[in-house]
Amino acid sequence: MSRLLSVVTADLQTLFRQEVELAKAEVREEASRAGKAAGMLGGAGFAGYMVLLFLSLAAVFGLANVMDGGWAALIVAAVWGVVAAVLYRKGRTRMNTVSPKPEQTVATMKENAEWARHPTR
Predict the structure, then answer these.
(1) CA distance 77 to 48
(2) CA geometry: angle at 28 spanning 21 and 94, to 5°?
């Protein structure tokens, strides 16, 4: 009986260690995905800023030849506002795919708990 108990205890310890390793792997994967999405949002912000700065100036000066400079600046700003909104939505959509909860670990822990309650099933 004691040998059986020690085998079960060893198996439970191994199972627990494996579950912890699985949780760590899942968290690392999700953190990597979150980092990539955050990098894209940051890159979109910086690119939007640079584009807004240089192309806006060129467009304002070009349109100022046809209309008042204030209206030209307003039109250019509106166009780049739409571009920034599109980039933001894409980054936000990708960020929403990131799950901080280790789904696979939770599922296997539920299976383990069910097995522990009814080991003969």
Answers:
(1) 11
(2) 140
Task: Residue 30: name the closest of 98, 92, 96 by CA.
Answer: 98
Dist. CA 53–CA 80, nearest whole Å: 10
List of residues 6+ apart from 45 with CB closer than 8 A = 87
Kindly report the pTM of this predicted structure: 0.41
The pair of structure tokens assigned to 57 is: 């100036």
pLDDT in tens, 13-39: 888 888 888 888 888 888 888 899 999
Q: Cβ neighbours of residue 38 under 8 Å, at least 6 residues apart? A: 95
| C-alpha separations of 75 from 45, 62, 67, 70, 114 in Å | 20, 12, 11, 9, 63
Reported as a single tens digit per residue, the pLDDT across 75-116 is 888 988 898 899 999 999 988 888 777 777 778 878 877 777
